[in-house]
Design goal:
The chain is an alpha/beta fold. The chain folds into two domains: 5-135 and 264-312, D-Maltodextrin-Binding Protein, domain 2 (3-Layer(aba) Sandwich); 136-261 and 338-344, Periplasmic binding protein-like II (D-Maltodextrin-Binding Protein, domain 2), CATH 3.40.190.10. The chain is 41% helix and 15% strand. Strands 1, 2, 3, 4, 5, 6, 7, 8, 9 and 10 form a ten-stranded mixed β-sheet that branches. Helix 3 (47-61) links the parallel strand 1 (39-43) and strand 2 (65-69). Helix 2 (14-27) crosses helix 4 (72-82), helix 3 runs antiparallel to helix 12 and helix 7 crosses helix 14 (334-344). The longest helix has 15 residues, at 47-61. The protein starts with a helix and ends with a helix.
Length: 347
Amino acid sequence: MVLSMKTRRTLFSPSFFLSALLLGSLLFSAIPAVAGEALVIYSGRSDKFVKPVIKAFTEQTGIAVTLHSGKSTALLNKLKLEGAATSADLYLSNDAGNLQKGSDLGLFRPVSSDLAAPIDANYRADDNSWIGLSARARVLVVNTEGEWADKLDSVFDLADPVLKGKLGITNSSNGSYIAGVTVYMLAAGREKTRQWLQGMKANVEGKVFNKHSKIVKAVARGKKQVGLVNHYYIYRHLAKHPDAPIKIVLPDQGPDDIGVAWNVAGIAISKHSKKSAQAEKLVAFLVSRAGQKMFAEMNMEYPTRGGVPAAKQVPPAGSYKVADVPMAELGRQRDATLDLIEAVGMP
């Protein structure tokens, strides 16, 4: 189900708090009681991206970790609702927008400068209240056997009417989608982004996908000719299907173009955690070279720590132009982005 824009806007309203609290009690009622010594993470990332790294941390330190998984926005709301009574020691999000929102709401405890130092300043909060752990690029996946294999080099090409019925995008409630629109709005301007959204809306004809992986599959099977996805979905598909007729296009690389939109997944320590020392040990592991290497090699994401390379299949960071938009702006400009998406009526 695609959330309406009105539903998304009521995220932090009092009435929504109560509803979400009741819903949250149902969603998490099946989770066993947490052992007192275990760190609790409210995780907005898919378990397959997180569990291997958490397992390595536990094996190294002996500190147990319990994941409460769900949608990043819903879990942030849950953390807000619970206040000092929360069991969460850390919050893990797949999107810088939610991380910055939580920081602005005062939900997090900043980590020390020494702990944050290995991570590029562009990929963490100004006050170190959240730390980016891995980055992803917003790219085009193109069918190499179709007529558009070598004709697309910008995200703004996706608004061309000739792509009607041939374009795959996620629904507009997707966090990466919203973050991408924010980047384009800040880098290219609101009006150009509005026209782009209108063109894509016409091209998808009301049919959108609920997962990026499904877009990649649709392009690989020729059901769509091009899709807008996070880069790692392409490489994961190719790892399983090396002969799939798809390729990645890094968009907007011309001298006057905006560059590729980036976003980060990251972590923050709950302000009310009673195990902040153990929580900092987990953060330290995740930003260590070993932890960053796992994100790179297992998830095909970009490490946020300098000096740790991406997987060999992935275009190296720094080898292409990236949009000059600070990650914190993805949270601060979220409402303006939702205004624009709502005005266009994106599905």
